[in-house]
Specification:
Blueprint: E1 3-7, H1 15-26, E2 31-34, H2 44-47, E3 50-53, H3 62-65, H4 73-78, E4 87-92, E5 106-111, H5 122-126, H6 131-152, E6 157-160, H7 163-173, E7 177-179, E8 200-203, H8 212-222, E9 226-229, H9 235-241, E10 246-250, H10 254-263, E11 267-269, H11 278-284, E12 289-292, H12 297-300, E13 307-310, H13 315-325, H14 332-339, H15 344-365
Parallel strand pairs: 1-2, 1-4, 2-3, 4-5, 5-6, 6-7, 8-9, 9-10, 11-12, 12-13
Helix pairs in contact: 8-13, 11-14
Length: 366
């Protein structure tokens, strides 16, 4: 069977790329299509695939500026010619699911999220943007919404990464979705024989919707030690508002990240995510999570057992949650036990079985 895999862009290793790694392992001879590819920031598992990119790859400084080309991404993804393939698998949170298909082809989409920038998280993404960016987003939003709905009809079978996203697929696309939780490397992220230190931890891209500024305001007031791992366009602004008790560690390799997970008191998770892999990595290392009570965190954290929630998304609510946390105790073993439900082996088996089910159903109908 000739297989094409479509992924929005390859500019770093996040949760979506961990899903893509498994797809690449299941279909090592597939051709991988993506808008932009930065091989220096992508794992060997993905880089060894036959990779084809769009015209964006030739644009200057595209690895930093690709997000600004969102309005033309639908047209670029539609220009990939997939007529020679039997099976199309898209790994999509933006436009990948919108590739054009031909008769007798099967398209299965693993949906990390409907295009969040234009639907329910529009305000969070653009509230701090420059005026010209905000105006452009408002102008193109209706067009992108129409395209997103129309292109969803090209998908034969949807897989959602959570109940949260399955509901959004139903709401925006009027489609049902199979729920298969994404993989967490629980063999790597594990409990070490390391002495716990006194700091709290954030692991996140430093972008507006992550609400890292909220956590910084809280820790400024509480004067508790906080370490922040991650990079992004908000870094300079966040550094300026942070007091001396807050340390920015930039990007860290996985081995260092494992150490920090094990040494911290708890992970702070102030944003709403589709699912969120970071809280599961922390729990796999035996650490509880203090999270905003919305989105995927409701499916990955057991309140009172592997973490606590705060609501609403305010400074006062997060301060209260941290103070409540300091009165409680959490079992490292229980935290890890919860994370084991999201293993890579489980994901690989479930997605392979579901793809086979979809293919068998399609061939019977034909």
């Amino acid at each position: 069977m000739r297989v094409a895999i479509i992924h929005d862009w390859l500019t770093g290793m996040r949760g979506g790329e961990k899903v893509l790694e498994v797809l690449c392992e299941l279909f090592p001879h597939a051709t991988l299509y993506t808008l932009v590819h930065n091989e220096k920031k992508i794992s060997p598992i993905i880089n060894r695939m036959k990779i084809k990119t769009s015209l964006l790859q030739k644009f200057p400084n595209i690895e930093k500026n690709y997000r600004y080309y969102l309005p033309i991404m639908p047209k670029l993804i539609e220009q990939f010619n997939l007529k020679d393939y039997d099976l199309i698998i898209s790994s999509s949170h933006c436009v990948a699911k919108g590739v054009k298909k031909f008769r007798r082809q099967v398209h299965i989409c693993y949906c990390h999220s409907p295009m969040r920038y234009i639907w329910d998280m529009f305000d969070q993404y653009f509230k701090k943007a420059k005026l010209i960016t905000k105006m452009g987003a408002k102008i193109f939003r209706p067009y992108l919404k129409r395209w997103d709905i129309k292109s969803s009809q090209r998908v034969d079978f949807f897989i959602a990464n959570s109940k949260n996203i399955a509901k959004k697929i139903k709401k925006y696309y009027s489609k049902e979705a199979k729920i298969i939780y994404p993989p967490v490397d629980i063999n790597f992220y594990r409990i070490l024989n390391t002495k716990r230190e006194d700091f709290f931890l954030i692991v996140s891209a430093l972008v507006p919707y992550k609400n890292i500024d909220l956590a910084i305001e809280v820790f400024n007031e509480l004067n508790l030690p906080l370490k922040i791992i991650g990079i992004g366009p908000e870094e300079e602004k966040l550094r300026k508002i942070a007091k001396r008790n807050i340390e920015f560690l930039g990007w860290q390799p996985d081995e260092k990240l494992l150490e920090y997970y094990n040494k911290c008191r708890a992970l702070i998770f102030p944003q709403e995510e589709d699912l969120g892999i970071v809280p599961l990595e922390a729990q796999a290392c035996g650490k509880p999570v203090i999270a905003y009570k919305k989105g995927g965190a409701l499916e990955t954290i057991i309140e009172g057992e592997t973490g606590i929630f705060f609501y609403p998304q305010t400074k006062e609510a997060l301060i209260k949650a941290i103070k409540d946390f300091e009165k409680l105790s959490f079992s490292p073993e229980r935290c890890r036990e919860n994370a084991l439900r999201f293993s890579r082996e489980r994901f690989s088996k479930e997605i392979k079985n579901y793809i086979n089910e979809c293919l068998n159903l399609t061939f019977r109908l034909q």
